[in-house]
Prior knowledge:
single chain; Alpha/beta knot
Amino acid sequence: xxxxxxxxxxxxxxxxxxxxxxxxxxxxxxxxxxxxxxxxxxxxxxxxxxxxxxxxxxxxxxxxxxxxxxxxxxxxxxxxxxxxxxxxxxxxxxxxxxxxxxxxxxxxxxxxxxxxxxxxxxxxxxxxxxxxxxxxxxxxxxxxxxxxxxxxxxxxxxxxxxxxxxxxxxxxxxxxxxxxxxxxxxxxxxxxxxxxxxxxxxxxxxxxxxxxxxxxxxxxxxxxxxxxxxxxxxxxxxxxxxxxxxx
Length: 247
């Protein structure tokens, strides 16, 4: 099932509209990251027209926690940004997301706050960019509208695929790593680099960390590959039994 993640949503009305859009098209996993006005929210409940009562809503303190159990996430943004990540339209994102779910992967779409959207650090935590084509002279989309558009595309692609459903791909031992495990490795790598004074220019460290994070999230890395990377770090330290390496 597809998860919808609203990162720092500001208005309860928009959360309710997003929930209503999700229910219209059969989605019920809504995740909220630090909603500005707290949770539960009476305005969200009123705007949802009963949708919130029919779905699972979870609240998280950080985006990393909200996507920890997911294998692949799309970051929605009007402009692609200066990041080397695959860019999808709503239709192609729905097609790609359904493919991954058929491979037993957990997929999510991350939407940013109404005023500011997603920042570079948020986007760097995701595997791909979802860019909704809009009028360049007026590209602002309401949060509820954006969720509605993607929920519609998700159901439309699903309906088309059920008519000619291809066999699922057997990935064997190459199952994608969970985001929580990827972020733990990136944090371990950051600590190792910090210890070896890799970040000599402190003012450049945030940008370098975003680039490093992009490198691994873009790779759609498998759990086996992640264990190998942990083993490489352990070997470089000369530690053959490093207890940080996943079993």
